Amino acid sequence: MEVFFSVAPTLFNFIGTIVIAWGLLITKEKALELGISRWSSDDEEENLKLPAISDRIKQRNFAIVGLILLTIGLIIELIGTLCYK
Which helix (H) or strand (E) holds 20? Predict the structure, then answer.
């Protein structure tokens, strides 16, 4: 069990940082697509489909998952430090 509290935090922190970074990395083509201005609509559902908006929502979702993984890793690390050292 002590090995779990030694390895799991590092694993969760590593995966969490990768998830956050993955949500922020885009290609040059995607940057160009997002940078082109478009007309928006009065309909919120239609605006959510715009490339810039949908990309920001995707980035937000990746950031939330990454932060959750980092939090889990840090909590496990804290438990391991307090209980097994």
Answer: helix 2-24
Task: Tell whether the torsion through CA atoms of 27, 60, 5 and 8 is positive or negative.
Answer: negative
Mind listing the pLDDT tens digit for each residue in 32-84? 777 766 677 778 888 778 888 888 888 889 999 999 999 999 999 889 888 87
Q: Which residues contact 34 (CB under 8 A, 6 or more apart)?
A: 26, 51, 52, 55
d(CA 77, CA 81) in angstroms, rounded, equals: 6
Class of residue 28 by CB neighbours under 10 A (exposed 0-12, middle 13-18, buried 19+)? exposed
